[in-house]
Every structure is written in C-alpha cells, then in structure tokens.
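Service request form, structural biology core

Requester: graduate student, group of Dr. S.
Request type: structure prediction, single chain
Budget code: on file
Notes: please return the result as structure tokens.

Sequence provided:
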Amino acid sequence: MLGGQTNTSLRRKRSSGHPMDEYDRLPAELRRWVASADLPWGASSVRRAYVKALRRKGNPKAALAELDRLQSEKIEKDARAIWGCDHPSAQKA
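Core staff response, request fulfilled:
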C-alpha cells in the first residue's frame, strides 16, 4: 500500500512522531492483534480504541474482541460507501 492509491471512505491521518516507536510501545497482545488486522491501524488510534475497550470490558481478551467488532463495522461501512449495498461485505449490516 505504500505509495499506492487505495479506494476507501475512511479518514486518514498522518502521524506526528515516529510510527515504529509508537508501535513498539503498544502492549504485546495489541501488537499481535495489529499485525493481523484487516485495516491499517495507526498506533495512536489503535491504542485509544484498545484503552477505551479495556475500560469497558475489563480484560485484554474482551478488549481485543471489541476491536475485532469495531474493525468489522468499519469494513462494512467502507464497503457500502465504496461498492454500494449490493457488495457482499455490505450485506452483513
């Protein structure tokens, strides 16, 4: 994806600072989750979402499940915006 154009309706932000340093400071279980994520999460945004989910759910495993759910919602929303309601990913919602 580096240097290439991709179709998405999701907002993009540029990181201020050093993205790899931010990534390295994530908890190990969150780094593993990000490594297999379907979306290109930034370290700051995934940390915010994880901390919020951890507060609500009370444990890391449940917080990561919440991130899975959040990611699925974002993918479904993006699929509808890009390909319309007839796309298979958009029909789950």
